[in-house]
Amino acid sequence: MSKVSSTTSSSVARGGAYVTLAPRNEVLEVESEAQLRTLLSSLSGVDAVGLEARVAKLSTRSLKQSTKLTALDLAISMVDLTTLEGADTPGRVRSLCHKARRPDPHDAAVPNVAAVCVYPDLVSVARDALAGSRVAVASVATAFPSGRASLAVKLADVREALAAGADEIDMVIDRGAFLAGRLGRVFEEIVAVKAECGAARLKVILETGELVTYDNVRRASWLAMLAGADFIKTSTGKVGVNATLPFALVMLEAVRDFAEVAGRPVGVKVAGGVRNAKDALRYLVVVNETVGARWLSADYFRVGASSLLNDLLMQRYKQRRGVYPRSDEFSGD
Questions:
Q1: Which residues are catalytic?
Q2: Cα separation of the two ends of the chain
């Protein structure tokens, strides 16, 4: 089993073993669920008061007009344009893909979004509609949104999405298993999905609203990263509490600390509840102040949303022209 230090690159052990990690110059081998639990328990607790105070302070930051214009374009480029409804149709997905490629049909300078996210059975539709573009096709999988299914069913879900042309997989962890202390099961499922993904990017949804505490979110973030996640993601968007700035800050701090000791940057995706440009720009401020400029790209930060894109476009129009556009200026997709 290879050892990880702060100067090495990727290093998560696979194939039945858990992980070898070197936190700040101290080599620590984890080869059992008991050792994995010990490692996660050794993480420092989250100072909730301090965390929320920092979020409140960062939320008051104002941006100059020139900075705001740049930030709005950046936010657009980070959107995972999402439709995850039981009533989704191929026509709906094609319309969404058209908007993803050219968010503002009247302004070619507006960047395309990062990805379109759909259910596995609609991946092929999105793949065809996005052919020739730089927009990725993302698919939820592993019994989304509950994560309650056998590993065989979850892996079949992933294979279906990949076979249809998905570039990225958004998997969900079994929160019941995590909260019951079955950390090995959660870890091994992520490892198995990552192995199935091959070159496809893996985003691991923690469902922070169901994990309840900041400490649980920090531990789940580390568990997912140790198991090989390329991104950790806040939420499915299907529960009462989804993405929040405090939860995102906990995850960003975990990503920062993990990159320091493992030498591997991991992305963060916030999803659910980010509906307007003001909220999106607040997240960008928190990202910049916590992990720095490297994460200010779609390679390392995403926002999963549906209605957000229109507000970003409206605010961009207002910044450039001084007035808001007509309500029907942008499509409702």
A1: 170, 233, 269
A2: 49
